[in-house]
Amino acid sequence: MQRSVDVAIIGGGLAGNLLARQIRRELPDLSVAVYERSRERAYKVGESTVEVASHYLLRRQQLSTYLHKNHLPKHGLRYFFDTPERDAELPRMSEIGPKWPAAYPSFQLDRARLEADLLAMNEADGVEVNVGVRVSDLSLEDEGPHRFAAVSDGERVEVQARWVIDAGGREGIVAKLKGLRVPEKKHRIAAGWGRFRGVTDIDSLRGHDEWHERVNWVSRVLSTNHFMSEGQWIWFIPLRDGLTSLGLVQEASRWDASKQKVDGFLAALREHRAVRELIGEAEAVDYSAFTQLAFRTERFFGRERWACVGDAAAFADPFYSPGSDFIALENDFVVDLIRRDVQDDDYAAATEAFESFMQYRLDSTMVIYEGLYPTFGSYGLFRSKLFFDTGLYYNVLYDPYWQDKHRDLKWIRSEVRRRDFSMQFLENFRRMFRAAGEELKARGEYHAQNLGHATHDAVEAYGLFLTVGAPRTRREIREQNEWVFAETKRRVSDLLGEQTMKSLMDDSREMYDAWTQLSAG
Prior knowledge:
The protein is α/β, with parallel strands linked by helices. The chain folds into three domains: 1-70 and 109-181 and 296-344, FAD/NAD(P)-binding domain; 72-108 and 188-290, D-Amino Acid Oxidase, Chain A, domain 2 (2-Layer Sandwich), CATH 3.30.9.100; 367-519, no CATH class. The chain is 41% helix and 20% strand. Strands 4, 5, 12, 13, 14, 15, 16, 17 and 21 form a nine-stranded mixed beta sheet that branches. Strands 1, 2, 7, 8, 9, 10, 19 and 20 form an eight-stranded mixed beta sheet that branches. It has a two-stranded antiparallel ribbon with strand order 3-6. It is globular.
């Protein structure tokens, strides 16, 4: 049996389903087929969205009513800091987190339910949905249609497709065929995670009215809650139906074989008093672990009409939940490339522009993690890093995405031209944070502010500004960046002292030059 289709999507998870839905909505004359190997939808990591992905889901996918009815609203990112002995009671921990519901919407997703519902939506919308199908013998042709076999229950269908999109996760059939996978050698992190029943609701803690009042009784449990320690962090993400997603992410050097099993994972979590009291005797619904999470790719998009999206392409880190943001960008670019191909536009030139931008985006994401897990356990220092990272996120990532600037080739190329300076600047701040953490440990002050402190104002905590999407001049964007840079420098200087701060900056000639260039406008 033979079958021809305009766009074949290998993988029916989040990335593949959203891409199929987007193609049907924006390019309805094209035929789309999804090939998903698993017959069951399973819980997966990546339940928490941040603003770019949420904007994509609400605007591009028009899933607002569905998400609000079937999933949980997210009350931002929240962080707790512990003693060196990990014995602090939760209300005594220093905390960073909002005291009002989030200014911009985001969600805590039940991935199993979302993916099952998306498959049903896509089938109803005319997508050919093939579940329980294994793709094999893929041949990507320079000219003419690509070919592969779709095998299910002993039946083999020969498929021809003008476009092939790999959305099949880490197995990466296109990545294997094209030799795209690049091991991440610098950022070595391991993780375990699962869904659990019986986790205590943070908002239900009694006898701590002052602690609840501090955040205006806003729901802490609806936040993505992080328990921060040197070299690691633990997440609590609420899901529907009484489930909580728990995860532990560590520098790979801290990982051991016991954590590959759920009992070892729970034992590691229970080393922290506050976490131990919350998880109690919680029961595992599922559990998974990886000894190395991050990896890169040689290419996201091919001129021969193929692409890799989601985990089939690359993965940086679960911290700040960037995975679904990458899906939003990748899917937008794939749809734009297919549109250009259909319209006989120069999609090859656009392919190279989008490729350069995605590689830049991956590099600029990796640099905010690389070597910086040792800074995570200090409230005083991480407060500065969080402000820096999220302030830039709102100003140079979320705002242009809101305005669809990433669909303008002129804007894309101008961003890529500034890549070297931007990467050097991010690298210099990475070095500064790293050196500051080492200095605090040398002084014995790493944990000095980890009890009794709080940052609850969204501007102070995250560098949030409330005019995302409004027209702004390049000068206004630069001024917003300058504010983030200067405020970050001030905070680290207050923590270490002017002389130490000057010494750290003098140790990096590049940082000094970057600051000079920035000040000069």
